[in-house]
Design a protein that fits this description.
Blueprint (H helix, E strand, L loop, with lengths): L8 H5 L8 E4 L12 H7 L4 E4 L11 H5 L3 E6 L6 H8 L4 E4 L2 H13 L3 E4 L13 E4 L2 E7 L3 E11 L5 E2 L8 H7 E11 L19 E4 L19
Parallel strand pairs: 1-2, 1-8, 2-3, 3-4, 8-10, 10-11
Antiparallel strand pairs: 5-7, 6-7, 8-9
Helix pairs in contact: 5-6
Length: about 240
């Protein structure tokens, strides 16, 4: 059987990137971003990308790197945050944005991985979120129909993997990453540690290897804090 383990992030993405593709990118704020794979997409200079992600990184980090090079033409996201470049490109009309409620975004991705083309939710009813979408009254309440999200490529970050691609995530990095792993035609995962087969407790595996196509060790593990808040040290 062909090994799923690749030598470096560039090799892990070889042959997968092309203009106009849709990419899912894991992460919540700056936690769990595929920070070793994103720079390789930047180097490849593929353009007109649709990127599905909770947010778009922060200055100098994460998907911000692809916004800076104008490789992303459309974002499907739930949070603009404090990313000024994201904000500027959207307000200037450079970047198309489909702003989606966070829970709805998570469910659209999960539905894509589960093969469910559409579902109904109360979130967004009566707001701009529901404009142009079918609605239906169920048990006396109005619901808006949302559709699944799928991608040509999912890039995610995990804590540990074995050679079969079974994954464990650590703390907040277990955010959009597990669902995105199921919703990409190809899933590439960068991990902090690759362990021998049989090392991971089956009850502790968050994503089964059947969803993972390629694995690579992370080359960048900065674990940045997006907004550091401190307080003065108490004086005795």
């Amino acid at each position: 059987m062909t090994s799923k383990i690749y030598s470096d992030p560039g090799a892990a993405l070889a042959g997968l990137l092309h203009d106009g593709m849709t990419i899912m990118s894991g992460g919540f704020g700056l936690s769990g971003n595929p920070e070793s794979l994103i720079p390789e997409i930047r180097k490849a200079r593929v353009k007109d990308l649709t990127v599905i992600s909770n947010n778009a990184g922060a200055e100098g980090f994460g998907l911000w790197m692809l916004l800076e090079t104008r490789q992303i033409s459309r974002m499907i996201a739930s949070y603009v945050g404090e990313n000024k470049l994201f904000e500027q490109q959207y307000l200037s009309g450079e970047l198309e944005l489909e702003l989606t409620p966070q829970g709805t975004l998570a469910e659209r991705i999960r539905a894509g991985g589960a093969g469910i083309p559409a579902f109904y939710t109360r979130t967004g009813v009566g707001t701009v979120v529901a404009e142009g979408k079918p609605t239906e009254v169920l048990e006396g309440e109005e619901y808006v129909r949302e559709t699944w999200l799928r991608a040509d490529l999912s890039i995610i970050k995990a804590w540990r993997a074995d050679p079969e691609g079974n994954l464990m995530f650590r703390k907040t990095a277990r955010n959009f990453n597990p669902n995105m792993a199921t919703a990409g035609k190809v899933t590439v995962v960068e991990v902090e540690e690759i362990v021998p087969a049989g090392t991971l407790d089956p009850d502790c595996i968050h994503t089964p290897g059947i969803y993972v196509d390629r694995i690579v060790l992370s080359t960048i593990n900065e674990k940045r804090i997006e907004k550091l808040t401190t307080r003065a040290k108490a004086v005795a």
